[in-house]
Amino acid sequence: MSAWLDALPEAAKTYLEGRRLDEVECVISDLPGIARGKAVPASKFAKTDYFHLPDSIFYQTITGDWADAADEDGWIEKDMILRPDMSTATAAPWTGDWTLQVIHDAYDRHEKPIPYSPRNVLKRVVQLYRDKGWKPVVAPEMEFFLVARNIDPAKEIEPMMGRSGRPAAARQAYSMTAVDEFGPVIDDIYDFAEHQGFEIDGITQEGGAGQLEINLRHGDPVKLADEVFYFKRLIREAALRHDCFATFMAKPIEDEPGSAMHIHHSILDIETGHNIFSGPQGGETDAFYNFIAGLQNHLPAGLAVMAPYVNSYRRYVKDHAAPINLEWARDNRTTGIRVPLSGPEARRVENRIAGMDCNPYLGIALSLACGYLGLINEERPRKQFKGDAYEGDGDIPQVMGQALDLFDEAKELHEVLGPDFARVYSVVKRAEYEEFLQVISPWEREHLLMNV
C-alpha cells in the first residue's frame, strides 16, 4: 500500500503524515451533484482497481424516485466500472478517523465513458476545445446561505444566528462586520479547505441575510468543477459543526437575493499560451465576440441545465442581483453576460446566469458548450448594452417547463454535450417537474381556496 500512498497529491500526503489511513470514500457525482459511491477500508482500496455501481444513479430524481430513461436495450440497471482519478484524492477532515475522498470516472463494460456522467460530459466539452487547439480556463464564484437549522419543510427558512446572538442581517454586501458574524463557520471552511489543498481566492458577505461568496482561482475546468463538488460538501460539514445549515438553493428565502455560480471564462491557444480573446496589440478579437454571441444565442436553450429546479427560476427577479436577460456589457453587473475590468492577458467573459444549485460539472460544461458553438459558427453578438439591463425585457425562460422545451429542441447543443446525456437529462428533469406540479403550495391554499 505504501507505493499507492506515495502517489497521492501533496495535500493528501501532508494530511496523512504520521497517521494511518483508515478509509477511502469512492465518490462520483450524480445529475444533481450529490456524491454517490462507497466507503471502503484503505487496505481494500489499495488492492482494487475499480468498483461497480448501477447506471441507475443517473436516472434518479432529486426526490429519490427513478425516471424511465431506458435506452434501446431497455432499462436493466447495467453495472458501470468506476475507476479512481488519484489526482483528486483529498482529505475528509470532518470525519472521526483518517479518511480520504477520491473522485471516480464511469465507464461501461467496453471501457467507453458513460455519456451521462456529469464529469464525463465536461471532459467531452473540454476535449472539443482541445481538438481545435484551445485550452479553456474558468474561475467559478460560489454563493450560498448559512441558515438556521430547518427540519420542518413547512417552516420558512430563516437566517442563522450570528456570533452576536442576532439573526444575520440582509443588505450588508461586502461588510467585514457581517463576515465576522460567521467567523467560527468560516474558520472551519478555511481549515477544511487547507487540509484538502484548495486555494480560496476570497470570502465576502453578499446582499442576502447570511449569504456568503467564495471565489476560486482560475484554472482547468475539470479541476475547478471537482473543487466546487468537494466544496459543497465541505461547507455543509463546516456549518453543521456550528448548529446551522449551509444551503445552495437558488432562492432559499423570499424577498432576498438568490445564490449564483458565476463562471468566468477565457480561452488560451495551446501552442502559444496566449489568450485568444486578445489580439497582438491588446485589442478584443473576433473570438472574444464570437464567444459572447454563443452565450447569448444558446444559453436560453441550456438554461434547464444551469437552472435545474423549479426553485431556480425564482432567482431571476428584476433588481435582485440576478440577470433577467442576456445582454452583455463591460463592468456592468445588471447584464447576464459581463466583461470584467482586466488587462489584455486576463480578458475574460463572465456568465452570471448559472445558479448555485446546478451541478458544477454540468453548469461549466453547458457554459463552455455555448461559447464553443459561438466560436465554431463565428456568431456575432448583439450590440453592447448601455445602462441598467433590469429596465429591459427578459429573454430567458421563466419556468422549468419552458426551459425544458427549449432544451429538447437544441439539437446542435446536444451534439456538443452528447445526445445520450441530453436524452437522460431531459427525462429526469421532466419527471421532477411533473412531480412538483402535483404539489399544492401554501400560496394556492391561501388565495384560491375561498376566493375563486
Summarize the structure.
The protein has helices at 2-6, 10-16, 42-46, 118-131, 176-181, 183-196, 221-240, 286-306, 360-376, 400-409, 411-417, 419-436, 442-448; strands spanning 23-29, 35-41, 51-54, 79-84, 90-91, 99-107, 134-148, 200-205, 211-216, 244-247, 263-269, 328-330, 337-339, 349-351.
- What's the story with the biggest beta sheet? 8 strands, mixed
Distance between the termini: 70 Å
Low-confidence stretches: none
User: Helix segment count?
Assistant: 13
| Helix-strand sequence | HHEEHEEEEHEHHEEHEEHEEEHHHHH
Structural class: alpha+beta
Q: Mean pLDDT score, rounded?
A: 90
The percentage of residues in β strands lies in 15-25%
Number of strand segments:
14
Helix residue percentage: 25-40%
Cofactor: Mg(2+)
Domain GS catalytic: 118-452
Protein name: Glutamine synthetase family protein
Family: Belongs to the glutamine synthetase family.
Task: Give an overview in words.
The chain is of the alpha+beta class and 452 residues long. 33% of the residues lie in helices and 18% in strands. The protein has 13 helices and 14 strands. It has helices at 2-6, 10-16, 42-46, 118-131, 176-181, 183-196, 221-240, 286-306, 360-376, 400-409, 411-417, 419-436, 442-448, and strands spanning 23-29, 35-41, 51-54, 79-84, 90-91, 99-107, 134-148, 200-205, 211-216, 244-247, 263-269, 328-330, 337-339, 349-351. The strands form 2 sheets. Strands 7, 8, 9, 10, 11, 12, 13 and 14 form an 8-stranded mixed beta sheet that branches. Strands 1, 2, 3, 4, 5 and 6 form a 6-stranded mixed beta sheet that branches. A hairpin with a 7-residue loop joins β5 (90-91) and β6. α4 packs parallel to α9, α6 packs across α7 and α8 packs antiparallel against α9. The longest helix has 21 residues, at 286-306. The chain is globular, with a radius of gyration of 22 Å. The mean pLDDT is 90.
